[in-house]
Specification:
This protein is mainly β. It folds into three domains: 3-87, no CATH class; 96-185, Immunoglobulin-like (Sandwich); 201-342. It has helices at residues 3-17, 50-54, and strands spanning 21-23, 34-36, 47-48, 64-69, 72-78, 83-87, 96-103, 111-119, 130-136, 145-146, 154-156, 165-171, 184-185, 201-207, 218-224, 238-243, 248-254, 259-262, 266-271, 282-288, 291-298, 315-316, 330-333, 339-342. A hairpin with an 8-residue loop joins strand 9 (130-136) and strand 10.
Amino acid sequence: MNKSLLLFILIAFSYHAFSQVGIGTETPDDSAILDLSSTTQGFLLPRMNEEQRDAISNPATGLLIYLIEGTQQCLQVYNGTEWETIYCPTTNTVPTATGVSISGALTVGVELTATYSYQDAESDIEDISLFQWYRADDASGTNEIAIASATTLNYTLTSTDDAKYISFGVTPIAATGAIAGLEVKTSYTGPVGTASATNDARINEFHYDNASTDVNEFVEIRITGDLASQPADLSLYTISLYNGNGGTNYHPETLNNLTRTCDASNCYYVYEPSDIQNGGPDGIALSGPLGLIELLSYEGTFTATDGIASGVLSTDVGVSETGSADANGAIERSLAGAWSLSASSNTKGAENSL
């Protein structure tokens, strides 16, 4: 080879080895070490399955491959610890969230709970989906803000939420395939209020034992105020019976499903199950929008192990019925809160006689 030609090639190679390289262009971009340009061809990454990928010895951080594993196809990068999916073609559809909803009283201090259903057309399992609670000035979402640190399925309303409207959003995330779906949000609900001091709820009267087969069993709940001033959402109040042998609850029921009668001062909600425990000790619990109101027991005390009163030691009313009691009797609570046995009559659904 001509020595002059060889020298020229060596000089040219040295120049290009330490500057930008252009393929399909004579003017590679100054910011790129390699600039590819074509209107008829593309850039093809190494394609391999998981077994081939995992056989790469000591992969460098930033190493790129195109994974083809069955029906799954994804662009992946090695992040120094593991292979991480950057993007999967949209032939694998993104996951969706449906049935997004909020439950709980819109009252400062109350914990709200969000629920949703995760769905993916290719059955890609759910990874760690993203949650966010929002606050706005009205039901239209005016001046919406994402509430700081409110990124779980539960959110406890604070004084900042008073008179505001609340929404919850979830962005479904799949572990494989097309990773991130679109955020789905609930409609704004509100306004948030503060706990009312006008309604006082309590267990007011009950009957659980009598001679022969137990009959006329009931529990009465009293909430102060006439009909017009009763709580708007009675489903937030729950009565639950407890078996003192083990402290487990049974037959929980919300007040909106009970029979109600009212006078000018109070409303009475009557629960009439047919199998109130009478083995002693046993009990009755009542909860409201802010949690447990009371756990009462008869014939001794116990600690609840589940349900609305979980972990709470009961308060014995100090009065009991026996297997020889009148079927029409009841244990009643006075206005001051004292309990007494009405041996042969009850005031179910009305003001107590004490």
